[in-house]
Structure formats: C-alpha cells, structure tokens
Write a structure and sequence with these properties.
The chain is mainly alpha-helical. It is 43% helix and 9% strand.
Length: 375
C-alpha cells in the first residue's frame, strides 16, 4: 500500500464514521500520512484525529479510536496503533512490496503524479521568476512539479531570458518576457499542502541568487547545483558537482539509475526479466535494507506533492539521493552468481531495481536533468 492509497483509506474511514454518526465533522478533502515521528511506530502515521478533535467536540484519543476501529483489517494494513495525544500509526501488510513495484512499473515515470493541486474551476497558477539564473531554473522546475500534481501553470520572467539560460540550461517559459513593474516578494511563496491553490495565484520566484555563473558546469550539473539547496540557502557553484565519486550526490543518483538499466540489459542476456513479487533475502542484513528501499519508493508520491505544494525542488533532489543510496545494496543480489539459475527471487529483485530506476528517471526528468542509461 502506497502513502496515497493509505491516505485514501483513512479518508474513507473518516467518511464512514461521519455517515454513521460517530463523528460530527466536515469530511476533509485529503488526509496526510507520513513516516512516524519520535514516539511513533510502524511505517506511516497521521495526525488526522488531532485535526478533527476540536470540530468534533471530542478528545483526539477518542477520535483516533473511532477511526482505528474502522481501519483494523483494511486491505494492505496489518497493524493500527494510537500513540501520544492521538497519532494513528500504521504498519502496512506483507503484500505491499509486489503491489508497489507493480504500480511503479505500470505508471512508469509518471508514478507519483496526481491531482492534489488541481483546480476544479480552471484556476491558473502564474509563476513569475526574477531575472536571475537560479530564479529562472526554479521557475522552470516548479512549473513541472505543479503540473505533475494537476495544477494549470503559466511561467514568465521579469525581463528577457539570457541566451545561455535557454541554450545551456534549456529553460522554457510559457509566457513572453515581461517587465510590468508588479511588486514582488523578498522570499519564495509557499502553498499550504492541505488547501487548493487560489484561482488567480501569482507567485514570485526569488530564491537566494547563486554566487557565481553556473553555466560552465553544463546543463545537468548546473541545474543540480541550483536546485539541491533549499531556496533560502545560497548554492555552491563549483566542480564538486562534476566529479564522478560518491561524494557527489548527483553522480550517485545518475550512477544508480544507470546500474538499474544495466541490470535489466544483463538479465535479458541471461534470458529472464523483471517480475514483481516477494523479495527474498540473500543475506541476513538484507531484509532491513530492502525495507528502506521500499519505503523510499512508496514515499515518492508524497515527496512530489510536498515539493510542488511548498515550492521546494530541493525536497525532490534529496529524495532521489535517498532512493539511490537505498537501491545500491540490492545490486549484488539481482543477477545469478556462478552456475546459479535465474529464479523467482532474481526476477523479483530485478523488478525492484527497475522500479527504483524508474523513480530516479522520473524525478530527474522533473528537475530537467538527464538520466543516462550508460555512465
């Protein structure tokens, strides 16, 4: 069960509790689930009971227990625990890995795309980037992220784009360059992830400028250097983004993707392909490593939605590094060794690796960065 599916399941439980008279509240449009914080347990948690307690006129613990009774035994959920003042914690069922991998392979690079920021009345989000290299790259990527979550977006720049921004960085804006003098803001705007975008949203994109010209790094490294830090942090522009070593996060992400694609080619040469299923461990420590990877993949839709809603491309960049670091330990166990014959376990591991590579490719594409099959 993915976070999006779990969110829908919790929302359905809230709706049932309201329809059956146990809760007297307005059903929220969406419910947020995330990895549990300190004191929590399981795979995911939600604070929806705390949000509903005041309008329901009941203690949060009582609301949590009402919802817990409806969530126990739901498909894909193996355990529901209430902790603290009313947090609901979930442990997803054992069939989740195969279902998750199958869903990623089915949706391809659009896995994680959704409609959380879609406007029912045709509203348009208008992004307006300052005439600065980092601002125009952020504007370009924010448009991609917002569209991935269903928003209608138009993006423009204050003044004309420089040729290098178009040619090297491949920035493409929808609207003509403008200079109408409309006041901007000193800091990047934010969208509340629990509310719809205003019908006539105007968002000024003004991250902290880069201290040096990133164009000599080339498109991919330059974009990564500008997107990797949070918008309020000053980026580092240097050759560290070009080195092909573990110390370079961009290299780790692209290397992991290339290895995933290479494993698929090698498996085809051996006569087998990916088949989602239970990932049986080869080593004693492998189950925990596999769970880390599965959680990172399952979290991808939430990360995309949060990166779009909060105007934070750095969240996606850091998530891709998490996925890359989580998939690396899987590689040695994917292909048969020596005289070993391909088995269902090899096919399942290969499917998991391909799913990770798919998530990495889709994420890099949203950042405007190439995901090469060979590196």
């Amino acid at each position: 069960m993915t976070p999006v599916e779990l969110s829908r399941t919790v929302l359905h439980a809230v709706r049932r509790a309201v329809e059956e008279g146990e809760l007297s509240v307005a059903v929220p449009e969406r419910v947020r689930v995330a990895p549990p914080g300190p004191g929590g347990c399981g795979d995911y948690a939600t604070n929806v009971a705390l949000q509903l307690a005041r309008p329901a006129g009941q203690p949060a613990l009582r609301v949590a227990e009402v919802l817990r009774a409806r969530l126990m035994g739901a498909g894909g959920i193996s355990e529901v625990v209430v902790t603290g003042p009313g947090f609901i914690n979930f442990r997803v069922g054992g069939t989740a890995p195969g279902e998750l991998v199958r869903e990623i392979l089915r949706r391809g690079e659009r896995y994680g795309h959704g409609a959380s920021l879609a406007e029912r009345d045709g509203g348009v989000v208008r992004l307006r980037a300052a005439r600065d290299v980092r601002a125009v790259v952020h504007g370009d990527v924010l448009a991609r992220l917002l569209r991935s979550q269903g928003a209608s977006v138009q993006v423009s720049c204050v003044g004309p784009l420089e040729e290098g921004w178009r040619g090297v960085l491949e920035v493409r804006f929808d609207l003509p360059d403008s200079d109408d003098g409309r006041p901007g803001t000193d800091h990047p705007s934010h969208i509340d992830s629990h509310s719809h975008i205003d019908r006539h949203s105007h968002i000024d994109v003004r991250p902290v400028p880069a201290p040096a010209d990133p164009l000599p790094l080339g498109r991919d490294a330059a974009r990564w250097a500008l997107l990797w830090p949070a918008p309020h942090d000053r980026p580092r522009i240097g050759e560290e983004h070009l080195v092909q070593r573990e110390s370079n996060p961009l290299f780790r992400v692209r290397y992991a993707h290339a290895r995933c694609r290479g494993l698929l080619r090698n498996a085809a040469d051996l006569g087998f392909g990916p088949e989602p299923g239970a990932v049986e461990p080869r080593e004693a420590q492998e189950p925990q490593e596999t769970q880390v990877l599965l959680r990172a993949l399952a979290d991808h839709p939430r990360v995309l939605a949060a990166a779009a809603a909060h105007h934070a491309p750095d969240r996606l960049a850091r998530h891709l590094v998490t996925v890359a670091d989580a998939v690396l330990p899987l590689f040695p166990a994917v292909l048969p060794m020596g005289e070993e014959k391909p088995s269902a376990a090899h096919r399942a591991r290969l499917a998991l690796a391909v799913a990770a590579g798919t998530v990495l490719a889709g994420g890099l594409s949203l950042l405007g960065i190439d995901a090469p099959d060979h590196l």
